[in-house]
Write a structure and sequence with these properties.
7-stranded mixed β-sheet; 11 strands; globular
């Protein structure tokens, strides 16, 4: 499985961005998919994940109501729509995937495949 993330950029606070993660080698409908982020000087942290059937999404508290994870099976792509961005959202964003069920999906070590990361910078 290979993942290619894109869509990052430099925006002002309050703006929106949509990140994309294109998968190859396996369809996203057979994978748990997630987004993590790594703020400057900090450890990688969980942002959101979506179930194999796309029916369940889980978010970290700080992005609830602002971010939406979704997928397009035809495009084999998972998205992260980010609205009302805040300077605290500044980070490198990574998509992740696993074909297995996870007991602790918020732990980065649990995920098997990673994209290369895309930088999101939010200015105040």
């Amino acid at each position: 499985v290979q993942l290619q993330a894109s869509g990052g950029g430099l925006v002002e606070a309050g703006a929106s961005l949509r990140l994309s993660c294109v998968g190859s080698g396996r369809t996203v409908s057979t994978l748990l998919m997630a987004w993590f982020r790594q703020p400057p000087g900090k450890e990688r942290e969980f942002v959101a994940h979506i179930s194999r059937d796309g029916g369940t999404a889980v978010y970290t508290d700080s992005v609830k109501g602002r971010f939406t994870i979704s997928r397009d099976v035809a495009e084999n792509t998972v998205y992260l729509q980010m609205n009302t961005l805040e300077p605290e959202d500044t980070a490198v964003y990574y998509c992740a995937a696993t074909p297995f069920g996870l007991r602790v999906p918020t732990a980065s070590v649990a995920w098997d495949y990673w994209g290369q990361g895309t930088q999101v910078t939010v200015s105040s």
